[in-house]
Write a structure and sequence with these properties.
Length: 183
């Protein structure tokens, strides 16, 4: 899995084959197939790794954050994860998948839906605890934040992983926070 993630970080993404994966992992193709029945299964396991890593941290973060701070911290966490694990950015943008890999594409879409739910719950909690309405309605606020997250990841991939994702997010979040939350 580490070799596959590393291959996804390469500047010019080539077709990833199990033969190339085995070569870079310094094992045989048979050894790969002993642990994973297909390349698709390795990608699925990478998505599961992402989910486990992120959602474990989100649970803790949610308990320690104010509802109006949580969405920005959640997005910062994911952006930092992408900076640290560049290859995952290509998985999250779904650019490495073909139409034959709809199950994995759906699994990634499900990750974003879970992130959307976390953001929505935080915004609802803000309205409930402060008795204030959002400046943007709930659906529009969630869409805006999720679009920003996906756009940042896409921009990171397009920059060949050179863009400073987490560095620019703080200023962007401060701007968005003023637009979304009532003062």
């Amino acid at each position: 899995m580490q070799s596959l993630a590393a291959m996804l970080e390469e500047r010019d993404l080539l077709k990833i084959t199990t033969a190339e994966l085995a070569k870079r992992s310094e094992i045989t193709e048979a050894a790969i197939y002993k642990h994973f029945p297909s390349k698709r299964k390795i990608f699925e396991e990478l998505v599961v790794f992402f989910e486990d890593s992120i959602f474990t941290r989100i649970k803790v973060m949610k308990e320690e954050s104010k509802p109006e701070d949580f969405p920005g911290q959640l997005i910062a966490l994911i952006l930092k994860f992408c900076e640290t694990n560049k290859g995952f950015s290509r998985i999250l943008t779904r650019e490495v998948f073909t139409a034959d890999e709809l199950k994995i594409i759906d699994k990634v879409a499900n990750c974003f839906e879970k992130i959307n739910i976390e953001i929505r719950q935080s915004l609802q909690e803000y309205e409930r605890t402060t008795k204030k309405k959002l400046n943007l309605n709930l659906a529009a606020s969630c869409d805006l934040l999720l679009s920003c997250l996906e756009g940042q990841i896409q921009s990171f991939v397009r920059s060949k992983f050179k863009k400073d994702l987490s560095g620019s997010w703080e200023d962007q979040w401060n701007f968005l926070k003023k637009a979304i939350f009532s003062n």
